[in-house]
Amino acid sequence: MVATPSPGGSVSNIVRILLAIFLPPVAVLVTEGIGLQFLLNILLTLLGGVPGMIHAIWIIMRSR
Length: 64
Description:
Elements: H1 9-22, H2 24-32, H3 36-47, H4 49-62
Helix pairs in contact: 1-2, 1-4, 2-3, 2-4, 3-4
């Protein structure tokens, strides 16, 4: 028996993770909205792409 994922559940996370890799602030904006995490991610992304990516992926995984 093959388990089917819930509609939009895993696909949504895959899209958000891809956004986190290429556009980290957008991924955080979609997940959390405008707030402290979004502003922090913009700062981290400006300091270097990798810290922004790590933060965005952490936000996405935390909100699951």
